[in-house]
Design a protein that fits this description.
The complex is a heterodimer of chains A (122) and B (110). Chain A contains no helices and eleven strands.
Amino acid sequence: EVQLVESGGGLVQPGGSLRLSCEASGFIFSDYYMDWVRQAPGKGLEWVGRIRNKANSDTTEYAASVKGRFTISRDDSKTSLYLQMNSLKTEDTAVYYCARAITATTRGIGYWGQGTLVTVSS
Amino acid sequence: QSVLTQPPSASGTPGQRVTISCSGGSSNIGRNSVYWYQQFPGTAPKLLIYGINQRPSGVPDRFSGSKSGTSASLAISGLRSEDEADYYCATWDDSLSGRAFGGGTKLTVL
């Protein structure tokens, strides 16, 4: 069974930093592209970024709203995905979901974690 | 402003057939597969439809998807009260080099 468990959310002041983690299990983590998606309170889904698999050099892509501030990384040995968030703004307040592609070759999002809440406020 | 446009709300009565539209452009829906997700309040989204009208295991065949040009639709037949949820379309956008989501449609079962 695919399991994705996020952690690391919490309250942070504007301008601060936070690192989210996502521990994966139930599949061969290194084979899959992984995404981060967020959802502000009462709003829709917003893609944050994704990291490809090792076969594709772990390359990353980001939404314009977070590019240059957020960094996605992975540690295949720990089957874990990370989101380093710097220079946080109040508009970054959201539930952050870790997500896995449907299959190793079908790259749409197929599985979601339960989410972790990040609140940016003074 | 979402790259993909969905109606903010839709409604139907039990047993009815409801469709939710998702309008995009040549750089997204026009070139790439469309995915549909269902989300209940306080929970993570769940994949409903992917590829050419494919459903993950466990998704009832009451749910179906279609695509024509730069638009896509989700159809729910035999509407049930438990279908009341938010529905999102998504695809890859080649111009943005990123994933695009629709703004979401809140489905109410009357």
